[in-house]
Amino acid sequence: MPYLCAMLRFRNEEEEILFFKEIKPRLCFRLIYYRKIYNIEMNRPTGIEKQREYLYEILNDINKYNCKRLDFIRYDRSGSSHLDTLYFLRGKTDVEQYLETFFYELNPKFTTNCDFKVVKILSNDISTYLTQKIELLNVFKIGLQILINKKLSILIKKITPT
To answer: Which InterPro entries does the UniProt record give (predicted)?
Structure first.
């Protein structure tokens, strides 16, 4: 994709903002979203309780990330545009805002202050996936308890004299 961007010539700031605010994040977010799911599943421990703890920890990390960027999330989701020139034009670094730790390692021709933030926020909607997995573990645990209780009940009936 950096090569695509290098070939693109924006006619004006509005086109550049549109690309970095809307188009690039929508293209990149699925890659990150599914990579996150893959990594979550590959590193998922065994055992119901360990899995629940692991998934809750990931949810907690997502919430921490989002809390640190709450102002930007509100800005993005509200459809605001008054800061777009600062957030979505290349070469407009604002050191006073919360930049991603790897921001300075990125190709300046292919990134802005906030385009990757939009991607991360979109991919953090993985919370729904995590919540569903936790709910499944809860249902499985309850089902397992019911099954164990039934088996115990049957076993007790078999060994109890009448």
So the answer is: Tet_reg_excision_RteC
pLDDT digits (tens, 9 = 90+) for 22-64: 998 988 888 889 999 999 999 999 999 999 999 999 999 999 9
The SS3 call for residue 102 is coil
Name every residue whose Cβ is closer than 8 Å to that of residue 86 and which is 6 or more positions away in sequence. 92, 94, 113
User: Both tokens of residue 88?
Assistant: 């979505």
CB of 84 closer than 8 Å to CB of 17: yes
Helix axes 115-123, 70-78, angle to 10 degrees: 90
The model's pLDDT over 95-106, given as tens digits with 9 standing for 90+, comes to: 555 555 444 446
